[in-house]
Amino acid sequence: MKGILGLFAAFSISFSVFASNCETAISQERFNGFYKNIEIQKNDQQRYQLILAFSNRECISVAQMMKFTSLITDHKIKFSVVKDSYNLLFDQENRAVLLKGFSAHEQTLINKEISK
Asked: Please, how many CA atoms are within 13 Å of residue 88, restricted to the half-sphere of its CB?
């Protein structure tokens, strides 16, 4: 748990780019570093927290988010990741790709995030 808190503290100090100011998605090299950090987490809840933190701070593309969500096995947590990061993605015109694998009801709930 201390490692996660340290990781969050390091991110809050070192990153000044916010997803809303995106001009391009993060580089593959930077993404790979984030991916490795998420991959080593012990459970899906920790992965969810890091993915959401990265999404709030970095310009994540839909393709990159799909790779992040592939690390999550729990369907409910995967749903939460997509729902909570849906408006934060860099290439919003491609967001519909993330809806595959979700029920019609879940897709409706995710799409409601657009209007917020």
From this structure: 20
Is residue 4 situated within a structural domain?
no
d(CA 101, CA 116): 23
The predicted-structure confidence for 76-106, as pLDDT tens digits, reads as follows: 999 999 999 998 898 988 988 999 999 999 9
Two tokens, residue 67: 């790779």
Question: pTM (2 decimals)?
Answer: 0.78
In a domain, 64, yes or no: yes
State the Cα–Cα distance between residues 28 and 60, nearest whole angstrom.
Answer: 10
Q: Residue 46 falls within a domain, yes or no?
A: yes
Look at the chain and report how many structural domains it folds into. 1
